[in-house]
TrEMBL record:
Signal sequence range: none
EC number(s) on file: 2.4.1.54
Protein name listed in UniProt: Undecaprenyl-phosphate mannosyltransferase
Key words of the record: Glycosyltransferase, Transferase
GO molecular function, one term: undecaprenyl-phosphate mannosyltransferase activity
Source species taxonomy: Bacteria, Pseudomonadati, Planctomycetota, Planctomycetia, Pirellulales
Enzyme class, spelled out: transferase
PANTHER family xref list: RFBJ PROTEIN, UNDECAPRENYL-PHOSPHATE 4-DEOXY-4-FORMAMIDO-L-ARABINOSE TRANSFERASE-RELATED
Highest taxon of source: Bacteria
Pfam family, one: Glycos_transf_2
Amino acid sequence: MRRPNTMSQVTAINQAESAAVSAAANPVASHLQSVVVVIPALNEERSLPLVLGDLPDVGQVIVIDNGSTDRTADVARAGGAVVVSESQRGYGAACLRGLATIEQQINDGRAAPEIVVFLDADYSDHPDLLPRLVAPIFMGQADFVLGSRLLGEREKGAMPPQSVYGNRLACFLMRLLFSARYTDLGPFRAIDYGKLCDLKMADENFGWTIEMQIKAIFAHLRYLEIPVPYRNRVGTSKISGTVSGTIKAGSKILYTVARYGLRRGSM
């Protein structure tokens, strides 16, 4: 099977186009009740109130407590979020628990969301920009929207050099192997719920974000990136804040790219 030709399907919008998306975000405000936000969290009691406070009024916020030893779960509930626990440590494991929660709610009679937004709990992203992320999906322009930190403005120190170079390397490899035109692996992203289910996400750790992006290529999803600002997180990063965390995350990301690169002829 030939490698998928995605060049005609991929749209990487520039700053001017991003402004148009921002202007178009207001008309989607009435649709935000069909959005579910999934937030993995590990010991983020200081940052979560800020994240939840800045989010617009959406249908539901699900915080996955990934084994916190502080008051993460308590402050999440106080902020109006649905809190579920996932004892298996790992970013992907927490996200999968969030998706399992949505599925269970649908089985119990709750309406399925139109869009799922993934957002970190550390307040490095800007939750109030969520309407900009979901607008292209509601307007029928995309299935998957990624907030690119490398296209946006970053506070000094918000992304350490190893994160910047690691992201660029991963995106270069995806372009080389899959003709993908990503600039970032940013966690702030929105995706059509039905399309997300079709991707059959499986990674339980650091490979979650890049798995989604590669599978989006193979599924021929319409995707685009919009620039998003990025600030220094509250507290210390569990990944880029330590040498071991950086090595583990980088190794898993490169492994995921290589694994799907070897499989691309059969997908």
